[in-house]
Amino acid sequence: MRPLRLEVKNFTAFRDAAEIDFEGMDLFAISGPTGSGKSSILDAITYALYGRVERIGRQGIHQLISQGQSTMAVVLEFAVGPARYRVARRTSVKGGTQILLERGEDGAWVQAGEGADKVGVANGLIERAVGLDYDAFTRTVLLPQGRFAEFMVGDAADRRKILTELLGLDLFVRLGERAGQIRRQAEADAQAKTALLETEYAGVTEEAVAEAEILARDAAERERAAAAAEAAVRALAERWADDARAIADLGACERDLRAACAVADEVAGVLEDVAGRTAEIQAKIRERSKAAAECERTVAKAVAAREKAEATWGRAIDLAALRVRAEALGEARAALAAVQEELTQAAAAVPGLEEAEARANAAVSVAVGDAEAALEALATAEAELEEARHADLVGAVRAGVRVGDACPVCGRRVEVLPKAPRAVPLSRAQTRLARARDAAERARTALAEAERARDRASEATRAAVAEVTRCTAAAERARADVARVEAELASALGPKLPADPVATIDERATRLEELEGAERAAEASLDVARQELAVAERERDALAAELAEARGRLGSLAAPALLDRARGLADGIPEAPAPPVGTEEASTLMSAATSLSTILQGAADTLAESLAARSVGERDVAREAAAHLRGLVGEDIDDLGVAEIVELASAASTAAAREAATAAGHAASVRERLANARAIAGQIAEHRARADVFEALAKELRQDRLIAFLQVEALQLLAAAGSERLSALSQGRYGLEYADDEFSVVDTWNGEERRSARTLSGGETFLASLALALALSEQVGVLSVTERSRLDSLFLDEGFGALDPESLEVVVEAIEQLGGDGRMVGVITHVQELAARLPARIEVEKSPRGSRLRVGV
Fold it and tell me: Could you count the other beta carbons within 10 Å of the beta carbon of residue 33?
């Protein structure tokens, strides 16, 4: 993973938006004073990728929001090999987090899969893209303060887990899991096919095949016997065919005549019912037509009344709008009265306030005179005190001095004593000064109070005048509003407005609503009348349809053709009656249907007598045909007719053929199932052999075998590479070894002494862990079993300030070598000598507003 661009806003010390473009930066320093926010740059990267920061954890992440801000946001663009990604993560002070992971495609950003805008899904996508979880990332790529040496001296299980992810050794875990899956699937397939043999193929043997073939041969013999019997019966049936056809024609015609007679009887009954209901329906239609016409007249009157009212007063919506204006008139009048009252009160207050202001000005003049007098008295008291002090000093010097003594001031001998000055005593002068100062302070206080009173009076006067001005303007506006609303109402209510326009409008609206209600009631009554008329008309149409259907059913009987057919089969069949033509009367059609039923019934009886006379000869043929079926059918067939015996023969032949086919198919199926069973047994052996192979492979790929071996090999190689680095960093004193799941330090200055890396001092631990980190960054591409596992970037944030100049020089050279092969290396330090040695710098500057970033070369 290689960062390309980082944007932060309201993140720790970065209150304003800040951006770092990492493009083209291979080796650089992140420098700045302590507390400026250098480590916050690494925090922003881990927050963007994993939603976590080492020094805060996952739960308190909102604590990183800049003080006084509601939301922090970080955007990180990064590359994993040729793939480019962009993740934007935002957290509010309430703890809610939003995220969006995008992938670069053809120069544009698209959402990186389903759920890439949900925190849980996006975190998983990022972890899979980077190839490292949070713990591995903060021990191998981004090394924050406090985590720098954990890979070397931390928990052995955590170290192996990180190495597994970093070197792609989980490939062997997945291979082992896949081998286990294949073994389990092979065992399941073997068990399933074994169960199949024991259930579906139970009893499938050579003996079962032989038994099925015997049954098939017996069924084929029965099929041949049944076919021969059917042929003999059909030959007899053909001999009887002519008589049978005549008998069949007689029977069919008799059945048709009786069916037509039944239809004619049914139609006659329907027509009798239709004739009875027709008069009732016609009376109902006349009555309901009259009621509908009356309702239409009522609706017309209601519509006319409503339209007249609307033409005079306007529609309901117009009255509603007019009522709003009438209410506005009342409000405008009330507002005018209120503002006029305010104007009267404000104007009445102005003279009194002006007089108070004049009195305050006079009081200020008096206070000014008092203050000036007090100041003059104070100056006089101060002069008297100074004079008293001087006199007191001369008296003190002269006291006890006689002529001939040495002068206490100049040291010469006093020849003549000076006279003492006459002045006010010092204590009295001090008392007068204190009183003068008190008087001056009281005068100043009184003057300040008078000026404040004057200012208050002036302000009150100005406010009262301004209130008069405001009320005057408000009164003018209120009068204009009243006039405007009155003009609007006059167009609808007349130039002389009623005393209560709202009540007048309400009365009109109520009357209009009553008229609309009467109109709706009339229309509802009309709808009911029309629906009742429509129901009666539908009943009439239904009767007409029944009449038409009855007429059609009589016509569909084709009675003339049916009676002509009967006359061709027997004598004494009458002619068909002439059908009624052009009539719509149900009673006439009913008489015709009754007459036709009687004629059809007589014809059917005549054909029945002829059929009974011709059916006697069929018994002899039927008995001869039945003899051919004895032994083939189990039922008694002596009383059956020829046609029925033919059907039995056909059914027996078909059943025998079906049984023979079934037996033959069963025999073939048993043979095929025996072959399948043998093939399944072979497959079971193959599945069991496959299960054995993959069970052995899964055992070899277990974590405690191949992966553990590869982990130890990798750690030993890292220890060797790290030992070279550490030897250079420690001027040849220390080396590294790996044994028994722990890194040890070899001290060449103390006789190759070996001791745990946990025993190193702080500075020594820094050098050792740095050497191991540098070795890991260099060797991961060689040790990895996948191409993805490449550490394209390394960030160091710890310990450079504790190094002496010589060690720092060695460390800088090692870092410069590491950054020269296309890998990004970032060093966080406040050591200016180190920052100056690196080819690029990101400087973090503190300010009261928040930290700022400056990229330099």
Answer: 13
Q: What does residue 401 show for φ and ψ, rounded to 5 degrees?
A: -95, 135
Count of beta carbons in the 10 Å neighbourhood of residue 755: 12
The amino acid present at 223, given as its one-letter code, is: E
For residue 443, is pLDDT > 60?
yes
3-state helix, strand, coil in the chain (%, to 5): 70, 10, 20
Give kind and range of the element (H or E) at residue 596: helix 586-614
Cβ neighbours of residue 789 closer than 8 Å, sequence gap 6 or more: 131, 166, 167, 168, 780, 781
User: What one-letter code names the amino acid at 600?
Assistant: L
Residues 735, 748 contacting (CB under 8 angstroms): yes
- Distance (Å, rounded) from C-alpha 467 to C-alpha 349? 10
- Measured CA to CA in angstroms, residue 605 lies from 268, 561, 609 at distances of 21, 18, 7
Angstrom distances, CA of residue 264 to CA of 252, 547, 564, 583, 593: 18, 14, 18, 18, 5
pLDDT tens column, 545-581: 777 777 777 777 777 777 777 777 777 777 777 666 5
Contact residues for 648 (Cβ-Cβ < 8 A; gap 6+):
629, 633, 637, 640
Burial of 49 (0-12, 13-18, 19+ CB in 10 A): buried
Identify the H or E element spanning 755. Answer: strand 753-756
H, E, C per residue of 283-349:
HHHHHHHHHHHHHHHHHHHHHHHHHHHHHHHCCHHHHHHHHHHHHHHHHHHHHHHHHHHHHHHHHHH
Crossing angle (nearest 10°) for helices 618-629 and 241-313:
100
Which pLDDT tens digit goes with each residue over 152-193?
Answer: 777 777 777 766 655 556 666 667 777 778 878 878 887 887
H or E segment and range at residue 272: helix 241-313
The partner residues of 79 in beta bridges, in order of sequence, read: 2, 84
Rounded CA Rg of the chain: 61
**pLDDT band, very low/low/confident/very high, at 409 (cuts 50, 70, 90):** low
Q: Which helix (H) or strand (E) holds 18?
A: strand 18-21
Cβ pair 789, 131 in contact under 8 A: yes
Angstrom distance (rounded) from CA 610 to CA 560: 21
Task: Yes or no: say if 225 and 630 are a contact pair by the CB < 8 Å rule.
Answer: no
- On whether the CB atoms of residues 384 and 433 are closer than 8 A, the answer is yes
Please name which of 5, 24, 1 lies closest in space to residue 74, comparing C-alpha atoms: 5
Q: What are phi and psi of 747, to 5 degrees?
A: -100, 100
In one letter, which amino acid is 327? E
Q: Which two tokens mark 681?
A: 């047994």
Q: Are 111 and 122 in contact (CB under 8 A)?
A: no
DSSP per residue, 35-48: TSSHHHHHHHHHHH
How far CA 194 is from CA of 198, 199, 412, 694, in Å, comes to: 6, 9, 145, 20
d(CA 538, CA 271): 18
Determine the Cα–Cα distance for residues 209 and 549; give it in Å rounded to an integer. Answer: 67
Residue 736 backbone phi and psi in degrees, to 5: -120, 145
* Beta carbons of 123 and 50 less than 8 angstroms apart: yes
Beta strands in 25-119 (DSSP E): 27-31, 71-80, 83-92, 97-105, 108-111
Encoded tokens for 199:
């259930």
